[in-house]
């Protein structure tokens, strides 16, 4: 799902972009798959169902509050669950799902066909959104369970890319593992660290995301929801690109 510079077992894949499709091929970049370093794609949706996915995805969609004709980009869309939910909430919105992994995008496309949902799926890395979409092209940007898998420089790069791709006044909504406030949640989070690596995930558990979102240029940064799960607590954050 995301770029990773330090975890073994990731599968390098090329990231796509329309602007480069007619040019020379780019070198493959590594990333951590949606289901982690060890699990196959087929396990992603069943595992997600065990971590109260319907609750926190619903809360994320509520805070996105999609409107007709708005462009909403889902970065690290994985198998498409969040993008498809946003489409169901507002079918007249233009929903774009981006992920570097062609395997999960194939699953997302199958799910969309079954649902009859017109979601625009594109292959690309989270720090290349301007190449894939264009600067200032999205009204809303969302991402779920992506940043905890990324090395710290990539966390910053993705957030900077999200800021650039949003129009002034655009809204960012993230759902990810945030500050693990209790001993129980810190213990539960060890499962995630086993799957995705301690170096990349520990900053999330220490509560770094709000400061990183602010550093990327967003204002009105808030943690609006905290959902306890069997793998640690998942927080929902909202922020705004200034202007508009």
Structural class: alpha/beta
The largest pleated sheet is described as: 7 strands, mixed
Overall shape: globular
Q: Distance N terminus to C terminus?
A: 31 Å
**Low-pLDDT sequence parts:** 1-26
Output the number of helix runs: 10
Number of strands: 9
Spell out the helices and strands N to C: EEHHEHEHEHEHEHHHHEE
Mean pLDDT: 87
Q: Strand arrangement, largest sheet?
A: 5-4-3-6-7-9-8
Radius of gyration, in Å, reads 16 Å
Approximately what portion of the residues adopt beta-strand conformation? 15-25%
The percent of residues in helical segments reads 25-40%
Overview features:
seven-stranded mixed β-sheet, disordered N terminus, two-stranded antiparallel ribbon, alpha/beta, 10 helices, 244 residues
Question: Can you walk me through this structure?
Answer:
- This protein has 244 residues and is an alpha/beta fold.
- Helices cover 36% and strands 25% of the residues.
- The chain contains 10 helices and 9 strands.
- The strands form 2 sheets. Strands 5-4-3-6-7-9-8 form a 7-stranded mixed β-sheet, with helices on both faces. A two-stranded antiparallel ribbon has the order 1-2.
- Strand 4, helix 4 and strand 5 form a beta-alpha-beta unit.
- Helix 2 packs across helix 3 and helix 8 runs antiparallel to helix 9.
- The longest helix has 14 residues.
- It is globular, with a radius of gyration of 16 Å.
- The relative contact order is 0.17.
Which helices and strands, and how do they pair?
Blueprint: E1 2-3, E2 31-32, H1 44-49, H2 53-64, E3 71-75, H3 81-89, E4 94-99, H4 102-115, E5 120-123, H5 129-132, E6 138-144, H6 152-165, E7 166-177, H7 183-188, H8 190-196, H9 198-205, H10 209-215, E8 218-229, E9 232-241
Helix pairs in contact: 2-3, 8-9
């Amino acid at each position: 799902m995301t770029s990773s510079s330090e975890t073994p077992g990731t599968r390098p894949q090329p990231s796509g972009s329309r602007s480069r499709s007619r040019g020379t091929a780019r070198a493959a970049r590594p990333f951590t798959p949606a289901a982690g370093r060890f699990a196959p794609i087929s396990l992603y949706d069943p595992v997600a169902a065990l971590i109260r996915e319907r609750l926190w995805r619903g809360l994320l969609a509520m805070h996105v509050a999609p409107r007709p004709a708005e462009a909403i980009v889902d970065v690290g869309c994985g198998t498409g669950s969040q993008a498809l939910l946003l489409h169901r909430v507002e079918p007249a919105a233009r929903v774009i799902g981006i992920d570097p992994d062609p395997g999960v995008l194939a699953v997302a496309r199958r799910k969309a066909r079954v649902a009859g949902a017109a979601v625009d799926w594109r292959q690309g890395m989270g720090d290349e959104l301007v190449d894939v979409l264009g600067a200032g092209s999205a009204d809303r940007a969302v991402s779920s369970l992506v940043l905890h898998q990324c090395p710290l420089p990539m966390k910053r790069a993705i957030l900077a890319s999200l800021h650039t791709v949003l129009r002034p006044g655009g809204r960012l909504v993230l759902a990810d593992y945030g500050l693990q406030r209790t001993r129980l949640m810190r213990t539960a989070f060890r499962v995630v660290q086993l799957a995705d690596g301690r170096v990349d995930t520990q900053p999330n558990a220490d509560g770094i995301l709000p400061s990183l979102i602010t550093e990327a240029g967003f204002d009105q940064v808030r943690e609006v929801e905290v959902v306890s799960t069997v793998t640690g607590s998942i927080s929902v954050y909202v922020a705004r690109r200034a202007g508009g």
